C-alpha cells in the first residue's frame, strides 16, 4: 500500500485580504483530481468509526469509495440515502466534532476531509442541473402541513412528498430556508447557487411553499387540521428568539441582536444598499459578543460591510469557543480581533442615544465543574472600555412562542421548547410532530435535518394507520 | 403572499388610502393589528396598521403617509398592481370588551386611521365612545365622517385653529375631564410626542391609557429584536408583545431615539424627498 499523506488536501480559498471585503464564497471547493486524491486517503474501514459521528449516519466509506472510482452519480446517490442537503452540510457541519472526529486517520494525522468530499459530490451534481421528475399525487392523498422552511421542515417535506403525500410548507418570512437564508452569510453558504436551488428542487418535486404565513397568527394548528384539511402537522420553527444580556445600554442605537444584523444583511441584502432598500449601519469599530458560529458570522459580515476594527468578545477561552474551528480560523485570518476571557458589563452611551464603548470585565477560568467545563470568574476591578460604535449580541437564541402559545394540548418544557419524542418527533398533541431547534434548542443543520427525516417516517406511519393501510 | 391593490385614494397631500385584496388576512384581522409588506424584490419590509377590514369582500384598508423611500414606492402602485409580500395579521389585538364604560379614542394625524377600528369595536361592544381627532390643520384631517358615525361625541382639534378647537388633542381631553365626565379608558395613537403628552395628562388622573407604538421593525415575528421598547423597565418586542402597551409604563424618549436610528441613511437614500411629516413625530 502506498504511503498516505497525514494531512488533508488543503481547501482552495480566497485570499483573506481580498475576501474580507467581498461576499463571495470563501472556500472554493475541491476540483476533481484533488477530490479523488483525498478520497484515496480513506481506508474504507470494515467498522467505520466516522459513521458513528454523523448524526444521520451517512454511509461515508461507501460514498468515498465511489468518488475514488470516479462514480460521482453513485457517490451522491449514496449520500442522499441519508442526507438530503449535502451541498449545505458539506459546507456547514461542524465536522471536527462529528464524522471527522471519529475517523481513524485522525489518530495519527488529519482525518479524511469527509465534509469537503461531500460538498464536492453535491456541487458536481448541482452543476448538472438534473431534471427533477415531479411526483404524481393520488387524488385522495393525505395532506401534511409543515410549519417553518428551515432544514428540519424542508427535509421533512421532501421525504413526505416522495412518499406521495401532499405537502404544504408555511413560512413566516418572504423567503424559505430558515437560518440557511437569513442567518448564515452568503460567503459561507451561497444563496442563489445552493440554498435557492435546493428549495426550487423541492418545489419541482411537488412541495407547495407558502411564504409570508405566520402560523399562530393567520392560522392556528387546530385550524389547519380542522378547517384547512391537513391530516398531520410538522412544526420546525427553529430557535429564532434572540437573547439579550440584560445589561445597561442594550437598547441604545448601534446595538443589534445577531439575528437583526444578519437578517438585514442576508435576507434583506443590506450589503447592496441603496439598490436594496434596507439599511444597516455598521460603524467603524464593532464588538460582537459571543463565541459561536453566529458570532463569527456577524463579525466577518461587519468586516465585509466596511468596519475598520471588529472584536469578538467572549467570556471563556480559545478552547471553549463553540464555533466550528474553521470559522474561528477564517475570522482570525481576515483580521477579527479576539478579546477572549472578557465579559461585557455595560454598553456606554455617547450621551446622544448612540453607543460609545463596551465596558468589559476580565475573566479567569476557575476549577472544572461537574461537567468538566472550567467556568469563568470575573477578576475584581479589571473593568475596561472597548471603544466601539456598534455592538452585536450573539449569545444565543430561544424558541419563538407564537406557535406553542396558540396550540392547546401541545406541551412545552420550561424553556419553551416543544416536548417531542426523540424517535418519532411526536408531540403531546395527536397528529402534530416537531423537530429541529424548536425542540432541541439552537443546535446544528444536520441535527435539524435528521429530526425532519425521523418525523417524516413517523408521520408516514401515523397517516398509514389513520387511513387504515 | 401577494396582494392586489384594488382602490387608491389620495386623502390629503402625501396621505393615501389603499384597499388591498387579502381575503385570508381580512378574515383573521382584529382591531389593533398590523401587516408587514414588501413592495418589490429590492424593497424593505415595512409595517402598516390595518385601518379597516371587510371580511365579506376580503379586503384590508391601509392608510399611510409618504415619508420616505418605501412609502413612496408603495404610493406609486396603481389599482390592479400587486404588492409582492403581504404578511399578517401581526401583533396582539386590542382589548375590546363590553362593559368598559366610557372610552375616549384619540387619534393624531395618520394615527386616526388605526384608532378607527378600535373605536368602532368599542362602540359595537356597547361602550360609550368619545373621539378626539387632532390634525395640524383642516386640510389634512382624515376620516372625520367615519369617526363621527361611530362616536357618541366627537371633538376635533387643529394646531392652527383652522377647524374645531384650536390646540392639541390634550386641550379637548382637558375639556372632557373638566366637565366631570368619568373616563374609564383612553386609547391614544399618533405621533410619539402626542402619545407622550396624553399619557402625562392622564397619569395624575389614574386613567388607563393605551398607546400603539411604531418602532422600526424587520420581521414582525419576534425574531430580530429590532422593535424593542422599554415598558415598565422591561424590554419588550413591539411586534409580538404589542404594538399596544399601557402608556403609563412606556419609555417614550427611548422609543424616539430608536426610531431615528436610520434617519441619516434614509435621508441619503431618499435625499430628494420632501421631509415634511418625517417619522410622524413632530
Ligand atoms: C448565524 C447562524 C450560523 C449558524 N451556523 C451553523 C453552522 O455553521 N453549522 C451548523 O450545523 N449549524 C449552524 N447554525 C445552526 C443551524 O442553522 C440551526 O440549528 C438550524 O438551521 C435549525 O434548523 P430548523 O429547521 O430547526 O430551524 P430554522 O433554520 O431556524 O428555520 C425555522 C423556520 O421557521 C420559520 N418560522 C418560525 N416561526 C414560524 C411560524 N410561526 N410560522 C411559520 N414559519 C415560522 C422561520 O422563519 C424559519 O424560516 C447556525 C445558526 C445561525 C443563526
Ligand atoms: C406597528 C406599526 C404600524 C404602523 N402603521 C402605520 C400606518 O398605518 N400608516 C403609516 O403611515 N405609517 C405607519 N407606520 C410607520 C411606517 O411603517 C413607516 O412610516 C415606514 O416604514 C417608513 O418607511 P419609508 O422608507 O417610507 O421611510 P424612511 O425614510 O425609511 O423612514 C422614515 C421613518 O419611518 C420609520 N421607519 C423606517 N423604516 C421602518 C420600518 N421598517 N419599520 C417601522 N418604522 C420604520 C423610522 O422612524 C424612520 O425614521 C407604522 C409602524 C409600525 C411599527
Ligand atoms: S452530514 Fe455532516 S456529519 Fe454527516 S458525514 Fe456529512 S459532513 Fe459529516
Ligand atoms: S474512519 Fe476515516 S478512513 Fe475509515 S472509513 Fe471512515 S473516513 Fe475512511
Ligand atoms: S420586528 Fe423583529 S422582533 Fe419585532
Question: How would you sum up this structure, described in words?
Answer:
- The complex is a heterodimer of chains A (469) and B (282).
- Chain A contains 18 helices and 16 strands.
- Chain A has 469 residues and is an alpha/beta fold.
- In chain A, the strands form 4 sheets. In chain A, strands 3-2-1-4-16 form a 5-stranded parallel sheet. Chain A has a 5-stranded parallel sheet with strand order 6-14-7-8-9. In chain A, strands 10, 11, 12 and 13 form a 4-stranded antiparallel sheet that branches.
- In chain A, helix 14 links the parallel strand 7 (285-289) and strand 8.
- In chain A, helix 6 (86-92) runs antiparallel to helix 8, helix 9 (151-162) packs parallel to helix 18 and helix 14 (293-304) packs parallel to helix 15 (325-334).
- The radius of gyration of chain A is 23 Å and the shape is globular.
- Chain B is of the alpha/beta class and 282 residues long.
- In chain B, strand 5 (52-54) and strand 6 form a beta hairpin.
- The longest helix of chain B is centred in the middle third of the chain and has 13 residues, at 112-124.
- The two termini of chain B are 34 Å apart.
- Mean pLDDT of chain B is 90; it is low at 272-282.
- Classes of the chains: A alpha/beta (469), B alpha/beta (282).
- Chains A and B meet through strand 5 and helix 13 of A and helix 1, helix 2, strand 8, strand 15 and helix 8 of B.
- The complex binds flavin-adenine dinucleotide (2 copies), iron/sulfur cluster (SF4) (2 copies) and FE2/S2 (inorganic) cluster.
- One flavin-adenine dinucleotide (FAD) binds next to strand 4, strand 6, helix 2, helix 3 and helix 9 of chain B.
Amino acid at each position: 500500500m502506498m504511503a498516505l499523506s497525514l494531512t488533508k488536501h488543503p481547501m482552495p480559498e480566497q485570499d483573506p485580504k481580498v475576501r474580507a471585503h467581498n461576499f463571495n464564497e470563501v472556500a472554493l471547493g475541491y476540483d476533481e483530481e484533488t477530490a479523488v486524491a483525498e478520497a484515496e486517503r480513506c481506508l474504507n474501514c470494515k467498522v467505520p468509526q466516522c459513521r458513528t459521528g454523523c448524526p444521520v449516519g451517512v454511509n461515508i466509506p461507501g460514498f468515498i469509495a465511489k468518488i475514488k472510482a470516479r462514480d460521482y452519480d453513485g457517490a451522491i446517490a449514496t449520500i442522499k440515502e441519508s442526507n438530503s442537503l449535502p451541498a449545505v452540510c458539506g459546507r456547514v457541519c461542524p465536522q471536527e466534532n462529528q464524522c471527522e472526529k471519529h475517523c481513524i486517520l485522525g489518530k495519527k494525522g488529519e482525518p479524511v476531509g469527509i465534509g469537503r468530499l461531500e460538498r464536492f459530490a453535491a456541487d458536481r451534481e448541482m452543476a448538472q442541473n438534473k431534471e427533477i421528475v415531479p411526483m404524481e399525487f393520488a387524488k385522495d392523498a393525505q395532506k401534511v402541513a409543515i410549519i417553518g422552511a428551515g432544514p428540519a421542515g424542508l427535509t421533512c417535506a421532501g421525504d413526505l412528498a416522495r412518499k406521495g403525500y401532499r405537502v404544504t410548507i408555511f413560512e413566516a418570512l418572504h423567503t424559505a430556508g430558515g437560518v440557511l437564508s437569513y442567518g448564515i452569510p452568503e460567503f459561507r453558504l451561497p444563496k442563489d447557487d445552493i440554498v435557492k436551488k435546493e428549495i426550487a428542487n423541492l418545489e419541482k418535486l411537488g412541495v407547495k411553499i407558502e411564504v409570508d404565513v405566520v402560523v399562530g397568527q393567520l392560522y392556528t394548528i387546530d385550524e389547519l387540521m380542522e378547517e384547512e384539511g391537513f391530516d398531520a402537522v410538522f412544526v420546525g420553527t427553529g430557535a429564532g428568539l434572540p437573547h439579550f444580556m440584560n445589561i445597561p445600554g442594550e437598547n441604545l442605537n448601534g446595538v443589534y441582536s445577531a439575528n437583526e444584523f444578519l437578517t438585514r444583511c442576508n435576507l434583506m441584502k443590506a450589503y447592496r444598499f441603496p439598490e436594496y432598500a434596507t439599511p444597516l449601519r455598521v460603524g467603524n469599530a464593532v464588538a460582537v459578543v459571543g463565541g459561536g458560529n453566529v458570532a463569527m458570522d456577524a463579525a466577518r459580515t461587519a468586516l465585509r460591510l466596511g468596519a475598520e476594527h471588529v472584536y469578538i468578545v467572549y467570556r471563556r477561552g480559545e478552547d471553549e469557543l463553540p464555533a466550528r474551528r474553521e470559522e474561528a480560523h477564517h475570522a482570525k485570518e481576515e483580521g477579527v480581533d479576539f478579546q477572549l476571557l472578557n465579559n461585557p458589563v455595560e454598553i456606554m452611551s455617547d450621551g446622544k442615544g448612540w453607543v460609545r464603548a463596551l465596558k468589559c470585565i476580565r475573566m479567569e477560568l476557575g476549577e472544572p465543574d461537574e461537567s468538566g467545563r472550567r467556568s469563568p470568574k470575573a477578576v475584581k476591578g479589571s473593568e475596561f472600555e472597548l471603544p466601539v460604535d456598534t455592538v452585536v449580541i450573539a449569545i444565543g437564541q430561544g424558541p419563538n412562542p407564537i406557535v406553542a402559545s396558540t396550540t392547546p394540548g401541545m406541551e412545552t418544557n420550561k424553556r419553551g421548547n416543544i416536548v417531542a419524542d426523540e424517535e418519532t418527533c411526536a408531540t403531546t398533541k395527536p397528529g402534530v410532530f416537531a423537530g429541529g431547534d424548536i425542540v432541541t434548542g439552537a443546535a446544528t443543520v444536520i441535527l435539524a435535518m435528521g429530526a425532519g427525516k425521523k418525523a417524516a417516517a413517523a408521520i408516514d406511519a401515523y397517516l398509514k394507520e389513520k387511513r387504515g393501510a | 403572499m401577494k396582494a392586489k391593490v384594488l382602490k387608491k385614494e389620495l386623502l390629503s397631500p402625501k396621505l393615501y388610502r389603499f384597499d388591498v385584496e387579502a381575503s385570508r388576512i381580512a378574515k383573521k384581522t382584529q382591531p389593533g393589528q398590523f401587516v408587514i409588506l414588501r413592495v418589490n424584490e429590492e424593497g424593505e419590509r415595512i409595517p402598516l396598521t390595518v385601518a379597516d377590514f371587510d371580511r365579506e369582500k376580503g379586503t384590508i384598508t391601509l392608510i399611510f403617509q409618504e415619508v420616505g423611500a418605501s412609502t413612496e414606492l408603495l404610493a406609486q402602485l396603481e389599482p390592479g398592481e400587486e404588492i409582492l409580500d403581504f404578511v399578517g395579521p401581526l401583533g396582539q389585538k386590542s382589548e375590546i370588551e363590553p362593559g368598559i364604560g366610557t372610552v375616549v379614542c384619540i387619534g393624531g394625524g395618520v394615527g386616526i386611521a388605526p384608532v378607527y377600528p378600535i373605536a368602532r369595536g368599542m362602540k359595537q361592544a356597547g361602550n360609550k365612545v368619545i373621539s378626539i381627532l387632532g390634525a395640524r390643520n383642516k386640510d389634512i384631517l382624515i376620516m372625520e365622517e367615519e369617526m363621527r358615525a361611530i362616536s357618541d361625541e366627537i371633538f376635533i382639534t387643529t394646531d392652527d385653529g383652522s377647524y374645531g378647537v384650536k390646540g392639541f388633542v390634550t386641550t379637548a381631553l382637558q375639556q372632557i375631564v373638566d366637565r366631570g365626565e368619568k373616563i374609564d379608558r383612553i386609547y391614544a395613537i399618533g405621533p410619539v410626542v402626542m402619545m407622550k403628552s396624553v399619557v402625562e395628562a392622564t397619569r395624575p388622573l389614574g386613567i388607563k391609557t393605551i398607546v400603539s407604538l411604531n418602532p422600526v421593525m424587520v420581521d414582525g415575528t419576534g425574531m430580530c429584536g429590532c422593535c424593542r421598547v422599554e415598558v415598565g423597565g422591561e424590554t419588550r418586542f413591539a411586534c409580538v408583545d404589542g404594538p399596544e402597551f399601557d402608556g403609563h409604563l412606556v419609555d417614550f424618549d427611548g422609543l424616539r431615539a430608536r426610531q431615528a436610528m436610520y434617519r441619516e441613511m434614509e435621508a441619503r437614500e431618499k435625499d430628494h424627498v420632501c421631509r415634511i411629516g418625517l417619522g410622524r413625530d413632530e
